[in-house]
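OP here, attaching both records as promised.
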Amino acid sequence: KVEDVLTQHPAIDIIALIGVPNPERPGSELVKAFITIRDDYTGPQDEETLKEDITKFAKEKLSPYEVPKLIEIRKELPLTTIGKVYKKDLRVEAKKS
């Protein structure tokens, strides 16, 4: 549901949401969004401005707990053979950082 809502943002092509450990509250998680940008997107190109715009969009459309607290913009995301985002790779990567 959350991913479906966020893909309505004009910049977002592909999105994957995962839970990552919250460094301020051991045992709890933060929502992190990994996104790729649409090739035809013509809005703000500055990464920080774009993240702020996506966060504002999310706050208007979602409950506070559903809004990603972290956003990482990437050129591409790992995909399975059927074209779905391979979230396991993202979780492993997030644990390393």
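Record two, same layout:
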Amino acid sequence: MAFQQVAEELRRQYSLGYYPKKTPQAGERRNIKVRVNRPELVVRTRDSYVFQPGANATAQGGNTQQPKPPVLKKDLGGTF
């Protein structure tokens, strides 16, 4: 029963990402806030992270261009 609940939850989750407007400094703490407009949804996230250069290629920025944001291919049915 527990495995079924976990499997069901994994099928209904979303992963979000972003590119900061300003590249953070090494060791800088960045706050995270995710809100939804649907009371039946549950948001599980950490409330902050500490930027570590080299820990994540997308957070580093560097001399590479940021990829274009993804395009929503299917309406999720509702306002988030």
